[in-house]
Amino acid sequence: MALERGAQPFARSEYEARWTALKATMSQRGLQTVLTTDGSSMTYLSGYIGSSGYLPQMVILDAAWTEPKLVLRKQDVPLGIYTTQISRDNIIGYPETLVGNPERNGHDFVLDMLEDTGAHTGLLGLEEGVLSRAVYRKYESRLGAGTLADISGLILSQRLVKSDAEIALMRDAARIADAGVLAAISATRPGRRECEIGGDVIHALASGLPDIDTITIKVPNISSGPRIGTAHFNWYLGTVENGMQLNFEIVGLCHHYSASIMRTISLGPPSEKLRRLHDGVHEGLEAGLSTVRPGVTCADVANAYHRALNRHGFSKDSRCGYSIGMGLEPSASLQPTDMTVLEPNMTFHMMLGTWVEEDFGVTLSESFRVTETGAEVFGKSERKLFVV
Q1: Strand runs (DSSP E) across the chain, as ranges?
Q2: Nearest-angstrom CA–CA distance, 316 and 300
Q3: The domain made up of 164-387 is a member of CATH 2.40.10.340
């Protein structure tokens, strides 16, 4: 019995539009074929969501093909059939003899395939920034350096402006993130271990909502005590007590599309220092969001935040956010040096984790999209310092 297709986040027409747009860029750059091994770009072009990226796997698109080819380890082919809109004949598995083989692997299989199909006769685009040097040398030695071009960032730049279908998934991801915020507030009380709080949040993120199933989660960042000055921390040993502060970042995921949110909780009345920093960060968040509209730059948004925060006597060294979609997409940053011009349906996480000392900081953020006139904030959680 043939394996049936699973629930698909997008219609085939959505992927066809992506292939057409990529082919147009390929034509502009004189590329006959592009090959990506980046997991998020593979998902973007095919829908494939397997976690077998420790072995060679890739999406290949040739200018003459009507759809890409998805190349996987043979035992992963059924997942490719189940999760993608690519025709069965173009989901190709390489044999298990190429797994754990120090002489030949999946890339050798692909090189053979490129030669057999004639796709190697034109310029082949590879992501040098993603491939290891050994893998790149393999392509170079077989095809010749003159037939290769670096396309690092090419597919990522195409992902910068989202389709309406992608935006819909990010709105659902934000609803899941909001459920995680409620779980964090409910779970935080004196005497509870950080791992118990994390467990309650994970349960909320994994359980989804009555009308939204989840397929994966990202472990939340949670810190308390002196670790509230840390930027990336899941959680640690010990309990939270009255007089402490808890910072957290929660990511909601829907079909791998994300919406992030950060908030701070005070166990008992907040200190004057905490209140003052949170007020400054909150004012900066509002200033940044009110700056968002088509035509302004990422730098304009970041500078609005910095001006507001500085008025409260604090400063933030790190950037104020970044482009998001399938997780963090490093194609644009909300920082004073990034002159990327905002367009409708660009999406960002305005990440205002503001760590002003090694043992002190505040977390507050929103995920949003650029609209025709301003910003649509995805999350609905209260934008405040929570006191429990």
Answers
A1: 33-36, 58-62, 69-73, 91-94, 124-126, 148-150, 221-224, 245-254, 257-266, 322-325, 327-333, 347-351, 354-357, 360-362, 365-370, 375-377, 386-387
A2: 15
A3: no
CA 4 to chain centre: 28
Statement: residue 352 has pLDDT above 80: yes
Do residues 351 and 308 touch, judged by C-beta distance below 8 A? no
Residue 158 to residue 284: CA distance in whole angstroms: 30
* Amino acid letter, 256: H
Q: Are 268 and 183 in contact (CB under 8 A)?
A: no
The single-letter code of the amino acid at 289 is L
Cβ-contact 47, 8 below 8 angstroms: yes
CATH architecture, domain 12-158:
3-Layer(aba) Sandwich (3.40)
Q: Report which of 56, 12, 54, 63 is spatially closest to residue 36, judged by C-alpha positions.
A: 56
**Amino acid letter at 83?**
T
Residue 88 CA to residue 275 CA, distance in Å, equals 58
pLDDT tens digits for 196-233? 999 999 999 999 999 999 999 999 999 999 999 998 98
Tokens 């921390």 identify what position?
A: 233
Q: Where are the domains of the chain?
A: 12-158, 164-387
